[in-house]
Amino acid sequence: MIKHIVMWKLKDSAEGTGKAENAAVMKQKLESLRNEIPGLKSIEAGIGIEHPGSTWDIVLYTEFDSQAELDAYQVHPLHQEAGKFIKMVTESRAAVDYTL
């Protein structure tokens, strides 16, 4: 099983709204992919709790049975569509893929 984790730092303001509103939209867009993309076994998006020293605003956790399924997810049109909004509101991004 492959676990794919992505974390984003959001712009304070983008697309006419603030960080909190954009984080909520991102969460909705990402979790709407559940049951829509073949091979996506699990998906969870979480909005970070603000506190001093926190570096990431939102995190995505996904699971796939194979690298081929993760690769197909990356190029799937629904994932690409969600990514358009995410790129507009994101300041920085970090990701890791790993297996157990």
SS element count, helices: 3
Poorly predicted segments: none
Distance between the termini: 7 Å
Q: What is the string of helix and strand elements?
A: EEEHEEHHE
For the sheet with most strands, the description reads:
4 strands, antiparallel
What topology, given as strand order, has the largest sheet?
4-5-1-6
Radius of gyration: 13 Å
Number of strands: 6
CATH topology: the name is: Alpha-Beta Plaits
Return the structural class: alpha+beta
**Percentage of residues assigned to helices:** 25-40%
What is the level 1 CATH name? Alpha Beta
CATH architecture: 2-Layer Sandwich
* Gross morphology: globular
Q: Into how many domains do the coordinates divide?
A: 1
Beta-strand content? 35-45%
Overall mean confidence score, pLDDT:
95
Strand and helix layout:
Blueprint: E1 2-10, E2 13-14, E3 17-18, H1 19-31, E4 42-47, E5 58-64, H2 67-75, H3 77-89, E6 90-99
Antiparallel strand pairs: 1-5, 1-6, 2-3, 4-5
Helix pairs in contact: 1-3
In words, what does this structure look like?
The protein has 100 residues and is of the alpha+beta class. It has one domain: Alpha-Beta Plaits (2-Layer Sandwich). Helix content is 35%, strand content 36%. The protein contains 3 helices and 6 strands, in the order E-E-E-H-E-E-H-H-E. The chain has helices at 19-31, 67-75, 77-89, and strands spanning 2-10, 13-14, 17-18, 42-47, 58-64, 90-99. The protein has a 4-stranded antiparallel beta sheet with strand order 4-5-1-6. Strands 2-3 form a two-stranded antiparallel ribbon. Helix 1 packs antiparallel against helix 3 (77-89). The longest helix is centred in the N-terminal third of the chain and has 13 residues, at 19-31. It is globular and about 35 Å long. The N and C termini lie close together (7 Å).
